[in-house]
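Here we describe the complex-level prediction in full. Unlike the single-chain runs in Section 2.1, the four entities below were treated as one system.
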Amino acid sequence: MMMMVRKSKGLGERHQKILEFIESYQREYQHPPSIREIGEHCKISSTSVVNYYLDQLEKEGLLERDRKISRGMRLVGNNNPLGDLLRVPVLGVIQAGEPILVPDEAGFTPEDSVEIATSLMPSKEKGKDLFALKVQGESMIDAMVNDGDIVILKPVQDARNGEMVAVWLNERSETTLKYYYKEKDGYRLQPANPQFKPILIKKNESLQIKGKVVMVIRKVDRYN
Amino acid sequence: MMMMVRKSKGLGERHQKILEFIESYQREYQHPPSIREIGEHCKISSTSVVNYYLDQLEKEGLLERDRKISRGMRLVGNNNPLGDLLRVPVLGVIQAGEPILVPDEAGFTPEDSVEIATSLMPSKEKGKDLFALKVQGESMIDAMVNDGDIVILKPVQDARNGEMVAVWLNERSETTLKYYYKEKDGYRLQPANPQFKPILIKKNESLQIKGKVVMVIRKVDRYN
DNA sequence: TTGACAACTGAACAGGTGTTCGAGTATTAT
DNA sequence: ATAATACTCGAACACCTGTTCAGTTGTCAA
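The structure predicted for the assembly as a whole is:
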């Protein structure tokens, strides 16, 4: 005897509608809908039918349910529009000739913030002390960072060799992003772009490390 | 008479603990905890006390509540760890000398995916057809894109002047990222870095636009 | 037709859950 | 001390909500 399958194979129209509703509801209220709310919105008169479909969706692996718990459901996989975000405050701009703002000096007035999925963040930098700066001007081009880019920094005073840091060079009145190397007679600041030459800083010159670059984001929507 | 303030100004220890619990609970279950669950975990014996604190947190603007609705609360502002994510599939790599994969040709096997906060996305590119490629090699340096960067693309066949596109140049067997300009006698592909010279393509040479660059993400966690 | 099964209905039930209230304790200002 | 305020407790209530179940309808195969 042949096994019976669902009348309309895969996801029926109602399955789809329910998934979409859960998604949009959760997007709006930050918590899942109740069975009755789903029924109301999807024109399903009985709670048992909603339950019926929810079970199927769970069997399909599109949904997880916490039985007995109110609103205890969650979309799984790519349907899930929600996830861990890190909100990183944009404390200001970084540009040549201007000192870099760091959280302490900035009077704590994040003009804006950018949201980063924690899944994007390098392993252990998920601390809450990250901050972001918007790059102004093209003076960071040798660091492969363009006008308008957003750099995300972790405030540190010291860096290890090979880390990209934001530094303020007093003697040059210059702010730059470079790879940092401590050497016997001072420091070497290496541009990300190998076609540029490193800056050598002698031990007696002052060099203030303001932060360690964790991420660079470029939105390419100019001209739109 | 002086106004009375809370015993411990600002957020008390319990306020903090409750916020943290809601955050971690929601991170795990994708839905908020019930009042009783909060009480249990925060060593608060009475539901009314939890309610008491929740009211205060709402008054402080750190929480929003949907009264009468089970688990009807959400963290607001920077405490909120949840938000809209877009999951963009990483279809492969982009490198000089290799054709670019586009969704159709890729056999739809996203090896991996990156999550982007929708708030980061340029206005109208929030469609679900975006895809991402990992940059391999340093051949895109003139586009300010480095080895290991992730570029997020929107699959298009045509582009408007000024848009950054990923193209396959048949005559050169080359894949590149450039700003696109159509001119009277062909096309001009302008590097993002002004220190590089544009590539001029004659009308009879073939030029395949594979996608329009929407975003570039660079994780700077090498050497860690 | 008959049987099997998916889709659906309506109602009732049990437990989850937010709310409310009266009362008690602790801390602080006067 | 006294009063005012902040905080805590426990219990009771009413509604919210998931669950269950007996029964109906529609479709398809034998």
